[in-house]
Amino acid sequence: MSSLKGKIITVVGSGLIGRSWAMVFMSGGYMVNIYDNIPGQASGAITEISRKQIEELQQAKMLRGNLTAAEQLSLLSSHDDLLQALEGAFFVQECVFEDLEAKQTVFHEVENLVTESVILSSSTSCLMPSNVFSRVQNRTRCIISHPVNPPYYVRLVELVPHPETLPAVMDVAYSLMTDVGQAPVRLRKEIDGFALNRVQYAIIAESWRLVQDGVISVKDIDLVMSEGLGMRYAFIGPIETMHLNAPEGKFCFHYACKKIGAVLGAAKKQSVKTSYCFDYIHLT
């Protein structure tokens, strides 16, 4: 990735996510062209970034990267002309509102203005890559880079490939995100909701079910997460938790599945409802 240092990234869309992405990329030393099709919006975004965010972050000693606020801001430029904004870019991060037709239009226009080597990336949080890039002719260089809002403060980025995305494109996106201080995860294929939202929705659904069934109050189910699982999961994930939850040092994920399987088997004989255990038994 050192060979990419100083290269240009174009951010299309100057809203909250676009501004955050611009801040992330320039904190890593990349030149950033921010574009918006509404005249004056991109320049207004730079004013917002410089006066209300970057300088305040530096004063609070929370500025990311090794460059000063002034050095980072010198890497940022605004554009009302798409062709000008795309000039010299090796990576395009689209950040327009969550509308399929709008994103398809953006990538159709961008593809006609860049060379074949430029990577086209979308910030969509829920739209499938195969739909977002359906109007792109060369879909091998297309990828979803889904951030968690706001990207500057929450490092996770989900990298979701189009069915035709080349492995090399995934590698470049992964290296770029790592280089600017994000925490990228690779999805091996596209799926509705990606990974983060599917896990999040499962937690929300079960939490709501427990409240709805009169098992627990809204306040207390929130405490289950904020004072329990959330504190644990801030450091390690669910699979690692199972692996490390070791009685006498012999507990591992495979052992856990076997143990849960035995419990499920005994419960089934006694006609005990065990649906909450999900399908762990099948993992063995």
From TrEMBL:
PROSITE patterns tied to this protein: 3HCDH
Q: Can the keyword Chloroplast be found in this entry's annotation? A: no
Q: How does it assemble?
A: Homodimer.
What's this protein's family per the entry? Belongs to the 3-hydroxyacyl-CoA dehydrogenase family.
PANTHER family in the record: 3-HYDROXYACYL-COA DEHYDROGENASE FAMILY PROTEIN, LAMBDA-CRYSTALLIN HOMOLOG
Q: Where is this protein found?
A: Cytoplasm
- Output the Gene Ontology cellular-component terms: cytoplasm
* GO BP terms in the entry: fatty acid metabolic process
Query: What are the record keywords, sorted?
Result: Cytoplasm, NAD, Oxidoreductase, Phosphoprotein
Q: Per UniProt, what is the name of the gene that codes for the protein in this document? A: LOC107724506
Mention one GO molecular function: L-gulonate 3-dehydrogenase activity
Record site: Important for catalytic activity: H146
Mind telling me what this protein is named?
A: L-gulonate 3-dehydrogenase
Q: What is its EC number?
A: 1.1.1.45
**Which residues are in the 3-hydroxyacyl-CoA dehydrogenase NAD binding domain?**
9-189
Cross-referenced Pfam families:
3HCDH, 3HCDH_N
**Which residues are in the 3-hydroxyacyl-CoA dehydrogenase C-terminal domain?**
193-247
